[in-house]
Amino acid sequence: MGLGDAPLLFKIALGCGLAGLLFHLIGLATPYWTSLTLFENTIFESSYHAGLWRGCSGSICGKVSNAASWLEAVQAFAILGFLAGVAGIVLAFLYMFVEQLKKDVVYIVAAIGNLAAAGCIFLSIVIYGSKVENGLSWSFGLSIVGMIFFGVAGVLMGVNKFQNKS
């Protein structure tokens, strides 16, 4: 089975998984999970934005060091989500293109990888959102979008598997 022979739901699931990976990767790497303007409308106005790895005040940026334990948990779950997403997508491609791997277990593990990615990203978002109440920004939002795409990919793969059960 090549991509042309794959069922439509599988193709949509694969596209959702790839979109989820792209959105989460951008959200993971960019320093805009939080964005604030301090002392707005004064001569002391300053902007601050930070991600999981870097923080910037004005045009001066630096890496996050001595991070709080909750931020380390967010970093860990975000990375685990990324890795689970990569595993799910790689297994889906292997299932599709490698004849020896066209087994139910490979397909199911690929679907579970997408769902695990969504779950891990969900945990990172919940932890971060519970600790940072103001100024959540676009990188945070992109990871939310990535989580949704991974969840949809996992569900569609499951629906496709049970719909085409022979």
What would you say this structure looks like, in words?
- With 166 residues, the chain is of the alpha+beta class.
- It has one domain: Four Helix Bundle (Hemerythrin (Met), subunit A).
- The chain is 63% helix and 11% strand.
- The protein has helices spanning 8-29, 69-97, 104-131, 138-163, and strands at 34-38, 46-50, 54-57, 60-63.
- It has a four-stranded antiparallel β-sheet.
- β1 and β2 (46-50) form a beta hairpin.
- α1 (8-29) packs antiparallel against α2 (69-97), α2 runs antiparallel to α3 (104-131) and α3 (104-131) runs antiparallel to α4.
- The longest helix has 29 residues, at 69-97.
- The protein starts with 7 loop residues before the first helix and ends with a helix.
CATH topology: Four Helix Bundle (Hemerythrin (Met), subunit A)
Shape: elongated
The level-1 CATH class: Mainly Alpha
> What value does the average pLDDT take?
90
* Number of beta strands: 4
Which strand order do you get reading across the main beta sheet? 1-2-3-4
Residues in helix, % = 55-70%
Largest sheet: number of strands, sense, barrel closure: 4 strands, antiparallel
Structural class: alpha+beta
Estimated radius of gyration: 19 Å
Give the distance, in angstroms, between the N- and C-terminal Cα atoms: 16 Å
CATH structural architecture: Up-down Bundle
Strand content: 5-15%
How would you briefly describe this protein structure?
This protein is of the alpha+beta class. The protein has helices at 8-29, 69-97, 104-131, 138-163; strands at residues 34-38, 46-50, 54-57, 60-63.
Task: Tell me the layout of helices and strands.
Blueprint: H1 8-29, E1 34-38, E2 46-50, E3 54-57, E4 60-63, H2 69-97, H3 104-131, H4 138-163
Antiparallel strand pairs: 1-2, 2-3, 3-4
